UniProtKB/TrEMBL annotation:
<dbReference type="Pfam" id="PF03632">
    <property type="entry name" value="Glyco_hydro_65m"/>
</dbReference>
<dbReference type="GO" id="GO:0047402">
    <property type="term" value="F:protein-glucosylgalactosylhydroxylysine glucosidase activity"/>
</dbReference>
<comment type="function">
    <text>Catalyzes the hydrolysis of glucose from the disaccharide unit linked to hydroxylysine residues of collagen and collagen-like proteins.</text>
</comment>
<keyword id="KW-0326">Glycosidase</keyword>
<feature type="domain" description="Glycoside hydrolase family 65 central catalytic">
    <location>
        <begin position="284"/>
        <end position="490"/>
    </location>
</feature>
<comment type="similarity">
    <text>Belongs to the glycosyl hydrolase 65 family.</text>
</comment>
<dbReference type="InterPro" id="IPR005195">
    <property type="entry name" value="Glyco_hydro_65_M"/>
</dbReference>
<dbReference type="GO" id="GO:0005975">
    <property type="term" value="P:carbohydrate metabolic process"/>
</dbReference>
<dbReference type="InterPro" id="IPR008928">
    <property type="entry name" value="6-hairpin_glycosidase_sf"/>
</dbReference>
<dbReference type="InterPro" id="IPR012341">
    <property type="entry name" value="6hp_glycosidase-like_sf"/>
</dbReference>
<protein>
    <recommendedName>
        <fullName>Protein-glucosylgalactosylhydroxylysine glucosidase</fullName>
        <ecNumber>3.2.1.107</ecNumber>
    </recommendedName>
</protein>
<keyword id="KW-0378">Hydrolase</keyword>
<dbReference type="GO" id="GO:0005829">
    <property type="term" value="C:cytosol"/>
</dbReference>
Amino acid sequence: MADGEGDPGVFTATALPGDPRLLPTVTSAFLGTRVFRDILHAAGVYSGAAGDTHRADVPSPLGLRMAAPGAHSPAESFTLDTWTGTFSHTIETPGYTATQQLYAHHSLVHLMASSVTIRRLDGSTHPVTVQLQSLFVPQSQDLELTPGPDFLGAHYIYGQTLVPEVEGGPRPTVHMLWTPVPQSLTLGGEERERRWEFLTAVAGSEEEAKRSYSAGLSLAAAGSLHRSHVRAWAALRRGCSVELDGPLALRQALHGCLYYLLSAVPPRDSPRVPFHGISPGGLSNGTRGEDYWGHVFWDQDTWMFPNILLLYPEAARAILQYRMRTLEGARRNAQEQGYEGAKFPWESAATGREVCPEEIYGAQEIHVTGDVLMAFEQYYCTTQDQKLFREEGGWELVEAVAQYWCSRMVWSEEEQLYHIRGVMPPDEYHSHVDNSAYTNAVARRSLNFATDMARDLLLPVPEEWEDRARKIKVPFDEERKYHPEYDGYSPGEPVKQADVVLLGFPLLHPMSAEVRRNDLEMYEPVTDPAGPAMTWSMFAVGWLELKELQRAWSQLQKCFSNITEPFKVWVENSDGSGAVNFLTGMGGFLQVILFGFTGFRITRPGLLFDPAFPDDINQLKVSSVSYLGNKLDITITREEISMEVTETSQEPPASPLEAVLESGQSFPLCQGMA
């Protein structure tokens, strides 16, 4: 494999991976597919009831593959360019090149496009023909589709999903227009070069599908369709720029993670299209039986969200709005289990009702409710956006989560503390445990945030919120000075994944450096080496916090066994099992860079920083970090930290910033000053 002449953001190969799951994805906020695949998915379009709810397969006309059967010694290459958000396939022969491009248009989120360009390399005048191989059939196992009249030369089908998520609930509608694809394309004898464009528009209404297709057709006629996508994508990448001076493999992994994760978020200039959350395998995956059926887990709120918040708070807000829209479903979940408030589902689709196929996870892995609220807290600390809470339903969600935790606790007369019993912690090797350290700590954090938020909004604070936050048990071994994972945990018991180590980060649970070290030492050797990919990133962050740079680096290195070649697609488990295009692992990896190397910590008083680099890294530059309405460019080297305010918002006005050193000395940060 040759990586784009050393460019860490361009992945090129002469052959495709044998496992089609490892092909790269092209995705927008609304549409996604894997290259050369005959199905695509549309955001929020699920079919199937309850535990059978899965992303509905929409037939894709874009799963084209070029072939040049008559060519002599053709050379093939396949490239994912993360700078332009484009996949390309090139066939080169002595007489011509044929290049196919595929992309999900970043700003026209209902549009995907493919193009084929044939260019003559010699002076010959004979026709050049390239075949297009396609498995496309305008039918779906999940949609009842009906053909409609052609529109501007495009074919048209529309229909609804077959089975609603909840009985009597809505069945999403899909409208699709696409350019008919011939079996072959021919460059005439007198032509030197020609380009063919194939568009597919998918939307929830006929009007939106036609509007998107028409817009794409106009741009294609002007020769600027791909350019308009690249321009929108490049603007996003500039605004979420992370540059690292370090090993090539690390820089490639960084650019791969940014590409796949940023593909999943809405564009900056998007119309008010509802956002439908991010599943572990992204929008390109999630058919029945694949990548957790496209459901949304804590993976979104805990593992992906902090990176998006730091670089692109508008997209972070859209993620929170997804949780707010599904609040009523979460209320029903709590009610059905006999509790008050709102219990967010372990697996969520369109309604917020529990759609996990296995009851035990939905019933016991309740920490997800606190994980959701922690994302709201991080957002509020970073933006001070009270409008989301006062006017748009955010406070109702905060209050409902606090009510749930209060109703889920029971008082222990023996310990004079509140307990949460019968849960599954993040470590899914254990269930029916009492007082999971992580679950109880995240519940305490929920209640503390609800209390603080109520005061900021000048609302009364229920006494029980403060009382239960003070008196909830978080297991701690006074003798060994560490946090047992739950009541009765014995040191040495195997653990599936990062669990107690999450108390230090991202929970920021109060503890000494000695206890933080002991937690890391206790759980690192007993954590399953075949566990999910995000685990090692949290051990890396912990060791960076303690300035154990070599230990941090060795943990980060473990992530590379989950990154596949040649397109840097992550797998959930290092043996290739589990979800693919595993955005959760990518989110954890990015947190090592954005929160581990920088030492950033989002707290109520301020954005803390305490950088630490392993030996192989010399410099890190993060552009357009968003904080209290300001944009900062932050450059960290081994010798110094440079911060520059590059932008301040006017509406609402940005808060003035200052950098405060440990000594107490402070420096105002003004726009244009470094």
